[in-house]
Amino acid sequence: MKRIFCMVFCLMAAIASAQVKEDFVPASNAQQGKQYPQVNSERRVRVKVSAPDAKYVQLDIGGVKYDLKKDADGSWIGESDPQDEGFHYYQLNIDGASVPDPSSLYYYGASRWGSGIDVPAADEDFYAVKNVPQGEIREIYYWSELSQSMRHTFVYVPAEYDKNPTKRYPVLYLQHGGGENEYGWPQQGKTAQIMDNLIAAGKAVPFIIVMENGSVAMPRPAGGMMGGFDFAGAFGNVLVNETIPMIDARFRTIPDSAHRAMAGLSMGGMQTKSVCLAHPDVFSNIGIFSGGTITVADADNTPGFRATNKLVFVSFGSRELENRVAGFGDGTDPIQETQELKASGANAHYYISPGTAHEWLSWRRALYNFAQLLFK
Amino acid sequence: MKRIFCMVFCLMAAIASAQVKEDFVPASNAQQGKQYPQVNSERRVRVKVSAPDAKYVQLDIGGVKYDLKKDADGSWIGESDPQDEGFHYYQLNIDGASVPDPSSLYYYGASRWGSGIDVPAADEDFYAVKNVPQGEIREIYYWSELSQSMRHTFVYVPAEYDKNPTKRYPVLYLQHGGGENEYGWPQQGKTAQIMDNLIAAGKAVPFIIVMENGSVAMPRPAGGMMGGFDFAGAFGNVLVNETIPMIDARFRTIPDSAHRAMAGLSMGGMQTKSVCLAHPDVFSNIGIFSGGTITVADADNTPGFRATNKLVFVSFGSRELENRVAGFGDGTDPIQETQELKASGANAHYYISPGTAHEWLSWRRALYNFAQLLFK
């Protein structure tokens, strides 16, 4: 009996082991000189961490916690099930402590700086650092009278910007999602790489991209600060009345609505919708990534919208769209609504990212597709 | 006996407890919305982390591991002895795992991305983000033929740079230390804040600062890559033959040695010395922070040095200098050597940062003092 049990058990263990393909390589998000985290051709993520006195260590990725095994030297190692292509936040769980993987690079998302990993994608070339003319990400601070604070912002300028000292450029205001901040688009979003590659290939016209922090802490009337998040009120106020004038003064922009766009992902998409419908005279170009759409009713009920709007672009990851249409939220179909908007006369487009969920590869691809339509 | 022991023990515990002043506030390096890490007026660092199943958790800072205590809710909390003013790398030890504090911001040093904390300094105003005209940190990539790779670099430009489209500027090439990278000066170094504040106060002339990665991975003749670090050979070669021409082509520089400086901290100071002595026709201005000095013999044995050099600046933290003069390294006194260099006719200066060791407050203060002497 004991022997039969062992045979069955050993066979099962062998099958489980055989299922993991041993072609792991260090991920692009491994720190300089570190060998982990790794990914294999099945898109499994493997991590390794030294924790000699720990009772248990887990890899926490995609909403699942995977138990790691302890090596003789006190290191814990193990891998996840296959993940979707693209970027995923993850963390380690060491005896109940949720901590960053000490071997990975760190990103701001899920309301914390923590680990992230890129599972190679079939189309990853579009966001690779390549030897093409390189734009710049410029880190700037500016004083906000409304929020009584110095605000921190990233601005992408195309490679040709400093070579054409009199040329003026359109501007896209591009927002992160909930639990993220202004580092999202420059870092996990790969904004500069996507734009440099598109512009080098002649697929997008050169434009400036402003990446703001979508939360604004407002001073309370009685002093002290009021908690940060609102969908568009305080942020829209700062954006329209402070950020845009600052950008138009500091950069060589074309300061009119036809040459100004706003886009965002998830919460940033909802902010985009809210701000753009409140200010159709300010933004003529709209991108909403995984954050809803502009309906025919939105367009018709917004005075000036039909006259000024030049572009509406809507995108989703295929996996989140399946969930959404199947009953997520109010059960409406944002793709159908976008088609209806187009049929009503708007220049409306949609894009569905194949095989991705509510994650950054959906949004890298959204930017890649949106940018090719913008300002043309 | 038992009672006496308890009385003594309790008294000792009370004294120990009374010694910690309960005026902790969140550090500037706490993540957005997080309450820890904290510092108090005694310059103690307090951390808190949830690790309900851990056997032990320690705060590892300044070479000492401090045991944390477990709360009823599974959180571990505790504080260090008083630290020096300024910036310190630190980490947590959870059951033997060295991991970043999940509540702190992260910095690259000690050959890893990990936690850092700023203990407020009496003079911290000089590196604060203030509402003065703001320069920019520009993130750029460029192709290096020598290393067959895209290199990643940060460039500070002063606030007035884009407002004076024909004016040209001097350039400082500013290097990090061993185990650090190109993020060191923009992040823990507070380069932009120091320069913006100095320029706004009229204490420094506006100039450009280039912050490179001092390690260069060179392609092997037979393919593959050769390990990165050397003191100045490969890096100096890339810097002089690729970085400087790229910067002079891309930015409005004054492309001569009189208007070009190199400086660095620790390993970066040693690289500075090596590169500048090898290329006195390229760099006329030298800053060595915690990394040695230029001796009279160095100056006399370098053809061209006496004719071209305009400035030598040497600095140390007072604590490391005490150790050094007391026998560190070869037991020479770099301050005395700098004074001798000055007496021999060079424009040599030195600065000693009070109460700091081989850490970033020494180097922030070094940049602050060096910048006021440069290009005048």
Short description:
Chain A has 376 residues and is an alpha+beta fold. Helix content of chain A is 26%, strand content 28%. The N and C termini of chain A lie far apart (75 Å).
Keywords for this entry:
homodimer; 376 residues; alpha+beta; Immunoglobulin-like; Rossmann fold; eight-stranded mixed beta sheet; 9 helices; 21 strands; globular
Please tell me about this protein's structure:
Two copies of one chain form a homodimer. The first copy, chain A, has nine helices and 21 strands. Chain A is an alpha+beta fold and 376 residues long. Chain A folds into two domains: 20-120, Immunoglobulins (Immunoglobulin-like), CATH 2.60.40.10; 125-371, 3-Layer(aba) Sandwich (Rossmann fold). In chain A, strands 12-13-15-14-18-19-20-21 form an eight-stranded mixed β-sheet. In chain A, a hairpin with a 5-residue loop joins strand 2 and strand 3 (45-50). In chain A, helix 2 (191-200) packs parallel to helix 9 (360-371). The longest helix of chain A has 18 residues, at 233-250. Chain A is globular, with a radius of gyration of 23 Å. The model of chain A is unreliable at 221-229 (pLDDT under 50).
CATH topology of the largest domain in chain A: Rossmann fold
Query: How much of the sequence of chain A is in beta strands?
Result: 25-35%
Which sequence of strands runs across the widest sheet of chain A?
12-13-15-14-18-19-20-21
Identify the overall geometry of chain A. Answer: globular
What is the CATH first-level class name of the largest domain in chain A?
Alpha Beta
Query: How would you characterize the largest beta sheet of chain A?
Result: 8 strands, mixed
Helix content of chain A: 25-40%
Total strands of chain A: 21
Average pLDDT taken over every residue of chain A: 92
| Span of the ends, CA to CA of chain A | 75 Å
The largest inter-chain interface, given as chain pair and residues per side, is: A-B, 50 and 49 residues
Counted by DSSP, the helix tally of chain A is 9
